[in-house]
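A.,

Following up on our hallway conversation. Structure tokens first:
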């Protein structure tokens, strides 16, 4: 057998022994994976429940995991992947601050001894004041995070990244939307600079902010990869955070076309929808994940969104390599069973992916123009995965599930650990046979009068327009449909998706 034939056979459950030998041979010079310790059908090593789980990131020690918990953050140890252990929970942050506590915490990121805990992920309607900002912790001792300071902002923060002592924040402020760089290396966080799409091309200022939000940021070797929804994915030089400059844009939308587009359809459906991005170890391959749904009001197949791989070894000549399609779903609509792409991670020649109720998938991307699926695990009535990331300490990968979908049960949120080797799940459940209980908005309880937003509770269709906050694709549905075209579209309202 050729190498890739072995991989494909193993992924289909054929030639298991060959697959195990191949997995072991790839590890020369790296940490061993516990593949041999997990024989039989493909399934998680273990899991641990943690209320409010959203994003999860692995610390520099390789086995400590920091988890955004909606009302704070948690610390989990996965050194024994069969028994992940909650080390500590830190909730109700800054209750005595004006507008506190810090709410809707959907993202945490770590770099060295710094941890950023950001929120709220979305704006709020009404006149109540809410605390907005990035809390910075010293995690030199992961067992005992110590608060460094809180950088308060005038914008909600859905996602961020931290690199070389600088936090990069999604600063979505309507016309003033920017990637914001903040110095977090010292004792007092301080803003360093901002990068704005409209400064690169003024034509974007004429495009509705609903479709050009900054959804996520990944920083690698002085380059920020900015997921800018229908404006594409932008590579920005951040070697000087006070003077950040664009390098190139990958599959940017056409601002002239988007000026006249059906904003609702453009925001929720493909093409576009750059939601999350990451690069491989040497930053020669870029992965762009799309989060998208199919709207009944249009005659196109608008979703779910997949992951596209690009060759960015020459940023002046970016080329498309391959596309990984989302798992098929019986209902790809906003109120259906979600299998659209969410967060993912590269490590070596592996790609770890999450697909909400479509589960987690492991790919071999040693030949990036021909990805090979090695393993797929899903339990749509139990888990809706927000992220997948490699944990080098135990040699497994983690998957963060945000809740138990059918029951709207926040206690159902959990962190899973998975084997980093090929395998086949026994009796995998169907994602295409849906009913009113399992297919209402990735977490709804059935019925036809409600819609749901990922990362938030089930909400009724909007009937009023917020004057202080708005909805944006990738963040929530609750008010944006009513607010389209109004002055209220300057902030995000229930950008409840973490996505």
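Then the amino acids I'd put at each of the 499 positions:
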């Amino acid at each position: 057998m050729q190498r890739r034939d072995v991989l494909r056979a193993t992924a289909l459950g054929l030639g298991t022994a060959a697959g195990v030998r191949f997995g072991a041979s790839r590890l020369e010079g790296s940490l061993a994976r516990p593949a041999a310790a997990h024989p039989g059908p493909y399934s998680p090593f273990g899991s641990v429940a943690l209320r409010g789980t959203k994003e999860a990131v692995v610390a520099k020690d390789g086995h400590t995991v920091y988890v955004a918990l909606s009302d704070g953050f948690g610390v989990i140890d996965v050194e024994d992947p069969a028994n992940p252990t909650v080390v500590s929970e830190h909730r109700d942050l800054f209750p005595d601050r004006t507008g506190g506590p810090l709410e809707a915490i959907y993202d945490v990121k770590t770099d060295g001894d710094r941890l950023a805990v950001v929120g709220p992920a979305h704006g709020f309607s009404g006149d109540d004041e809410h605390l907005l900002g990035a809390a910075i912790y010293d995690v030199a001792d992961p067992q005992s995070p110590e608060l460094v300071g809180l950088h308060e902002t005038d914008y909600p923060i859905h996602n961020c990244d931290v690199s070389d002592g600088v936090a990069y924040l999604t600063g979505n402020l309507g016309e003033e939307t920017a990637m914001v760089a903040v110095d977090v290396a010292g004792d007092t966080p301080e803003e360093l600079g901002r990068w704005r799409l409209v400064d690169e091309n003024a034509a974007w200022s004429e495009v509705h902010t609903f479709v050009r939000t900054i959804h996520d940021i990944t920083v690698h070797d002085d380059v920020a990869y900015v997921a800018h929804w229908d404006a594409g994915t932008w590579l920005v030089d951040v070697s000087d955070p006070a003077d950040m400059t664009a390098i190139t844009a990958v599959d940017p939308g056409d601002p002239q076309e988007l000026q006249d587009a059906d904003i609702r359809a453009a925001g929720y459906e493909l093409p576009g929808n750059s939601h999350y991005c990451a690069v491989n170890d040497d930053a020669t391959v870029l992965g762009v994940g799309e989060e998208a749904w199919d709207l009944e009001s249009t005659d196109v197949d608008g979703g779910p969104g997949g992951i596209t791989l690009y060759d960015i070894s020459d940023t002046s000549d970016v080329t498309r390599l391959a596309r990984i399609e989302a798992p098929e779903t019986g209902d790809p609509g906003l109120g259906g069973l979600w299998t659209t792409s969410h967060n993912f991670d590269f490590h070596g020649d592996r790609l770890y992916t999450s697909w909400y109720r479509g589960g987690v998938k492991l790919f071999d991307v040693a030949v990036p123009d021909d990805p090979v699926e090695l393993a797929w695990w899903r339990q749509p009535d139990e888990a809706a995965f927000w992220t997948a990331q490699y944990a080098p300490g135990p040699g497994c990968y983690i998957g963060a599930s945000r809740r138990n979908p059918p029951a709207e049960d926040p206690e159902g949120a959990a962190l899973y650990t998975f084997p980093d080797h090929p395998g086949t799940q026994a009796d995998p459940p169907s994602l295409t046979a849906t009913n009113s209980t399992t297919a209402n908005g990735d977490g709804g309880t059935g019925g036809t009068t409600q819609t749901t937003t990922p990362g938030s509770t089930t909400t009724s269709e909007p009937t009023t327009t917020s004057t202080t906050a708005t909805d944006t694709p990738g963040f929530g549905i609750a008010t944006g449909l009513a607010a389209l075209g109004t002055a209220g579209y300057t902030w995000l309202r229930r950008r409840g998706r973490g996505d």
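Confidence is low (pLDDT under 50) at residues 1-33, 435-440, 443-470, 477-499. Curious whether your intuition agrees with the design.

B.
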